[in-house]
Amino acid sequence: PGSDTMMPNFTLKNEEVILSGIGIFKDYELKDILNTEDSSLFNLLNNFHTNNITLKSLCSTNKYTVLNIYEAKINLKPTKSNLIVSGSINSQIIENNCHLDLKDTDTYQNLQEYFLIVLENKMTNIFNILKRYQSNSLKIGTIYYNKYRDPNYLLWTSNPIIYDLNLKINKKGLTYEFN
Protein backbone atom coordinates (compact mmCIF):
# COMPACT_ATOMS: atom_id res chain seq x y z
CA PRO A 1 0.00 0.00 0.00
CA GLY A 2 1.15 3.48 -0.79
CA SER A 3 0.67 6.61 1.21
CA ASP A 4 -2.18 9.04 0.81
CA THR A 5 -1.50 12.52 -0.42
CA MET A 6 -0.92 15.49 1.81
CA MET A 7 -0.43 18.89 0.33
CA PRO A 8 -0.08 22.48 1.47
CA ASN A 9 -3.19 24.59 1.56
CA PHE A 10 -2.89 28.17 0.37
CA THR A 11 -5.26 31.06 0.98
CA LEU A 12 -5.43 34.29 -0.97
CA LYS A 13 -5.76 37.27 1.36
CA ASN A 14 -5.48 40.87 0.14
CA GLU A 15 -3.73 39.67 -3.04
CA GLU A 16 -1.18 37.81 -0.91
CA VAL A 17 -0.80 34.03 -0.98
CA ILE A 18 -0.59 32.60 2.55
CA LEU A 19 0.24 29.06 3.57
CA SER A 20 -2.73 28.15 5.76
CA GLY A 21 -2.30 24.48 6.57
CA ILE A 22 -2.04 20.98 5.12
CA GLY A 23 -4.74 19.12 3.23
CA ILE A 24 -5.33 15.51 4.31
CA PHE A 25 -6.43 13.11 1.59
CA LYS A 26 -7.88 9.61 1.36
CA ASP A 27 -6.90 8.22 -2.02
CA TYR A 28 -7.15 11.39 -4.14
CA GLU A 29 -10.03 13.03 -2.30
CA LEU A 30 -9.45 15.97 0.04
CA LYS A 31 -10.95 15.04 3.42
CA ASP A 32 -9.79 17.72 5.85
CA ILE A 33 -7.47 20.70 6.20
CA LEU A 34 -5.23 21.00 9.25
CA ASN A 35 -4.64 24.52 10.55
CA THR A 36 -1.07 25.83 10.67
CA GLU A 37 -0.49 24.70 14.28
CA ASP A 38 -1.70 21.16 13.60
CA SER A 39 0.23 21.17 10.31
CA SER A 40 3.45 21.82 12.21
CA LEU A 41 2.72 18.87 14.50
CA PHE A 42 1.81 16.74 11.48
CA ASN A 43 5.21 17.60 9.98
CA LEU A 44 6.87 16.75 13.30
CA LEU A 45 5.15 13.32 13.25
CA ASN A 46 6.39 12.86 9.68
CA ASN A 47 9.93 13.81 10.77
CA PHE A 48 9.92 16.72 8.36
CA HIS A 49 11.95 19.72 9.40
CA THR A 50 9.69 21.91 11.49
CA ASN A 51 10.21 25.56 12.22
CA ASN A 52 9.61 26.00 15.90
CA ILE A 53 6.44 24.54 17.34
CA THR A 54 5.17 26.48 20.35
CA LEU A 55 2.88 25.31 23.15
CA LYS A 56 1.42 27.62 25.79
CA SER A 57 0.63 27.07 29.44
CA LEU A 58 -1.86 29.63 30.76
CA CYS A 59 -1.36 30.47 34.43
CA SER A 60 -3.77 33.43 34.66
CA THR A 61 -5.46 35.93 32.38
CA ASN A 62 -2.96 36.98 29.68
CA LYS A 63 -0.07 35.28 31.53
CA TYR A 64 1.50 32.13 30.19
CA THR A 65 4.66 30.10 29.78
CA VAL A 66 5.65 29.21 26.22
CA LEU A 67 7.55 26.08 25.23
CA ASN A 68 9.30 26.01 21.87
CA ILE A 69 10.05 22.64 20.24
CA TYR A 70 13.07 23.10 18.01
CA GLU A 71 14.10 19.50 17.27
CA ALA A 72 12.46 16.09 17.33
CA LYS A 73 12.82 12.54 16.07
CA ILE A 74 9.53 10.62 16.14
CA ASN A 75 9.00 6.90 15.50
CA LEU A 76 5.59 5.54 14.53
CA LYS A 77 5.31 1.79 15.16
CA PRO A 78 1.97 0.16 14.41
CA THR A 79 1.45 -3.29 15.92
CA LYS A 80 -1.50 -5.66 15.69
CA SER A 81 -2.93 -4.21 18.92
CA ASN A 82 -1.84 -0.53 19.11
CA LEU A 83 0.11 2.34 17.60
CA ILE A 84 3.29 3.20 19.51
CA VAL A 85 4.48 6.79 19.14
CA SER A 86 7.97 7.20 20.55
CA GLY A 87 10.80 9.63 20.18
CA SER A 88 12.95 12.39 21.54
CA ILE A 89 11.89 16.04 21.58
CA ASN A 90 14.18 18.98 22.38
CA SER A 91 12.59 22.19 23.55
CA GLN A 92 13.16 25.39 25.49
CA ILE A 93 11.14 27.89 27.45
CA ILE A 94 10.94 31.09 25.40
CA GLU A 95 8.47 33.08 27.50
CA ASN A 96 7.78 33.03 31.22
CA ASN A 97 5.05 35.57 31.99
CA CYS A 98 4.01 33.34 34.91
CA HIS A 99 7.25 34.20 36.69
CA LEU A 100 8.08 30.55 37.37
CA ASP A 101 11.39 29.84 39.07
CA LEU A 102 13.37 28.57 36.08
CA LYS A 103 16.37 27.84 38.30
CA ASP A 104 14.42 25.13 40.11
CA THR A 105 14.54 21.58 38.69
CA ASP A 106 11.08 20.82 40.13
CA THR A 107 9.67 23.62 37.98
CA TYR A 108 11.14 21.99 34.90
CA GLN A 109 9.79 18.60 35.87
CA ASN A 110 6.30 20.07 36.32
CA LEU A 111 6.55 21.91 33.00
CA GLN A 112 7.76 18.76 31.26
CA GLU A 113 4.84 16.73 32.61
CA TYR A 114 2.33 19.42 31.66
CA PHE A 115 3.66 20.03 28.16
CA LEU A 116 3.98 16.32 27.47
CA ILE A 117 0.26 15.90 28.18
CA VAL A 118 -0.56 18.89 25.96
CA LEU A 119 1.62 17.53 23.15
CA GLU A 120 0.15 14.02 23.37
CA ASN A 121 -3.39 15.44 23.30
CA LYS A 122 -2.61 17.51 20.20
CA MET A 123 -1.01 14.50 18.50
CA THR A 124 -4.04 12.37 19.38
CA ASN A 125 -6.29 14.94 17.68
CA ILE A 126 -4.25 14.59 14.47
CA PHE A 127 -4.30 10.78 14.66
CA ASN A 128 -8.07 10.90 15.19
CA ILE A 129 -8.50 12.92 11.99
CA LEU A 130 -6.42 10.36 10.08
CA LYS A 131 -8.37 7.50 11.69
CA ARG A 132 -11.74 9.10 10.86
CA TYR A 133 -10.85 9.23 7.15
CA GLN A 134 -8.65 6.11 7.19
CA SER A 135 -5.90 8.21 5.64
CA ASN A 136 -2.41 6.79 5.23
CA SER A 137 -0.82 10.25 4.99
CA LEU A 138 1.69 9.44 7.74
CA LYS A 139 2.47 6.05 6.09
CA ILE A 140 1.47 4.18 9.27
CA GLY A 141 -0.41 1.59 7.18
CA THR A 142 2.62 1.14 4.94
CA ILE A 143 4.85 0.52 7.97
CA TYR A 144 2.33 -2.01 9.28
CA TYR A 145 2.06 -3.80 5.93
CA ASN A 146 5.85 -3.98 5.47
CA LYS A 147 6.22 -5.53 8.93
CA TYR A 148 3.34 -8.04 8.93
CA ARG A 149 2.46 -8.43 5.22
CA ASP A 150 -1.13 -8.20 6.37
CA PRO A 151 -3.48 -6.68 3.75
CA ASN A 152 -5.46 -5.06 6.59
CA TYR A 153 -2.93 -2.24 6.70
CA LEU A 154 -5.49 0.20 8.11
CA LEU A 155 -5.92 -1.90 11.26
CA TRP A 156 -4.07 0.84 13.18
CA THR A 157 -7.09 3.13 12.72
CA SER A 158 -9.06 1.04 15.21
CA ASN A 159 -6.25 0.53 17.73
CA PRO A 160 -5.32 2.64 20.77
CA ILE A 161 -2.28 4.93 20.77
CA ILE A 162 0.56 4.46 23.26
CA TYR A 163 2.98 7.33 23.75
CA ASP A 164 6.61 6.92 24.78
CA LEU A 165 7.98 10.41 24.22
CA ASN A 166 11.05 11.88 25.87
CA LEU A 167 10.63 15.65 26.20
CA LYS A 168 13.80 17.52 27.12
CA ILE A 169 13.65 21.16 28.16
CA ASN A 170 16.83 23.13 27.51
CA LYS A 171 17.45 26.37 29.38
CA LYS A 172 20.56 28.39 28.58
CA GLY A 173 22.61 25.38 27.63
CA LEU A 174 21.41 23.20 30.49
CA THR A 175 19.09 20.34 29.55
CA TYR A 176 16.72 19.01 32.19
CA GLU A 177 15.49 15.50 31.57
CA PHE A 178 13.30 13.59 34.00
CA ASN A 179 12.24 9.96 33.91
Detail the topology: elements first, then pairings.
Layout: E1 6-13, E2 16-26, E3 29-34, H1 36-45, E4 53-60, E5 63-78, E6 83-96, H2 105-133, H3 140-148, E7 161-171, E8 174-176
Parallel strand pairs: 6-7
Antiparallel strand pairs: 1-2, 2-3, 4-5, 5-6, 7-8
Characterize the structure shown.
This protein is an alpha+beta fold and about 180 residues long. Helices cover about 25% and strands about 45% of the residues. The strands form two sheets. Strands 4-5-6-7-8 form a five-stranded mixed β-sheet, sandwiched between helices. The chain has a three-stranded antiparallel β-sheet with strand order 1-2-3. The model has no long low-confidence stretch (mean pLDDT about 85).
Strand content: 35-45%
Shape: globular
Which residues form runs of ≥5 with pLDDT under 50? none
Tell me roughly what share of residues is in helical segments: 25-40%
Task: Report the major sheet.
Answer: 5 strands, mixed
Number of helices: 3
Any descriptors?
single chain; 179 residues; alpha+beta; five-stranded mixed β-sheet; three-stranded antiparallel β-sheet; globular
Quick synopsis:
This protein has 179 residues and is α+β, with helices and mostly antiparallel strands. It has helices spanning 36-45, 105-133, 140-148; strands spanning 6-13, 16-26, 29-34, 53-60, 63-78, 83-96, 161-171, 174-176.
